[in-house]
Amino acid sequence: MSLPRIAIDAMGGDEGVRTMIEGAALARRRHDRFKFLLVGDETRIKAALETHPGMAEASEILHCEDVVAGDEKPSRALRRAKTTSMGLAVDAVKRGEAGAAVSAGNTGALMAMSKLALRTMPGLDRPALAALLPTLGDNDVIMLDLGANRECDARNLVQFAVMGAAYSRIVTGNERPRVRLLNIGTEETKGTEDIQAAADRLRAADGLAMQFEGYVEADKINRGECDVVVCDGFSGNIALKAIEGAARFVTDLLKRAFSSSIRSKVGFLVSRPATELLKHHLDPNNHNGAVFLGLNGVVVKSHGSANAKGVANAVEVAARLLEDDITNRIAKDLGAIDTESLGAK
């Protein structure tokens, strides 16, 4: 099956062109139907393509030397959307020259450009940033919002739940994913007025393609007890950074423990299969690729420090969302819900 080509912001991220091209090439080796629009400095892109046979034939280069800096304010980057590699990659989706865009650049700038170019889907107030996180269960958990919206009301949270459930059905194949709201406790009386109001609306809504199961506390996000965790962007970003920090802490602690003495080094050799499994599970590159849900187009944010494997995973996320038509899935789900249950304004 052929797919619309994927626009790659080749200049974004900590590693830049080499890693972005290497990641795209890795994704194409896994799925040879992938085709790309590579946006960035033509000379550097061509040099990177030389080490990946077959990529040149599957790619078109859109030359651009202007880059959005990692610490650049979104408002300033937005004014340069038509001249930067990030802005041109997103614009290619708007013009229909690509089905999706992938960037490892500045998250705030990417969100601002994507919202301006692609607009929010009819019936939705705001897009949300969603990502897959590892769990102890059979499937990863989808969490949103992770920073696109600092403050959210009950209506926003309900809409995020609808979008997250649609994404979860694509990833897990479960037609009724388990959805919970992030809260400080599981009792019905806990949380802010907006969280409680969102829970009431989700319980009362008919026709939702999900199982709403109330609240989840932050320490249970990775237990595998739910498929979608919904929250405002401020809380979600803090929770995500805490999870990533805990993963790095465990990994570094194990390295220190196993290198402290001859005896511990022998213990490492004995336990190496288990530690390798742990390392694989905690490696963020294996879960790379956050998605801006709720836009009229697919935009995927790769982690800025992602290696080639991480970039390849982000490309595959974009391809999967195109293949399963995430935009129409969300639109259909929203259309099946009584607007009153969403708290229509």
UniProtKB/TrEMBL annotation:
The lineage of its organism: Bacteria, Pseudomonadati, Pseudomonadota, Alphaproteobacteria, Sphingomonadales. Pfam families: FA_synthesis. It comes from the Bacteria. Belongs to the PlsX family. It is an enzyme of class 2 (transferase). Catalyzes the reversible formation of acyl-phosphate (acyl-PO(4)) from acyl-[acyl-carrier-protein] (acyl-ACP). This enzyme utilizes acyl-ACP as fatty acyl donor, but not acyl-CoA. The keyword Lipid biosynthesis applies. This is Phosphate acyltransferase. Homodimer. Probably interacts with PlsY. Its EC number is 2.3.1.274. SUPFAM superfamilies: Isocitrate/Isopropylmalate dehydrogenase-like.
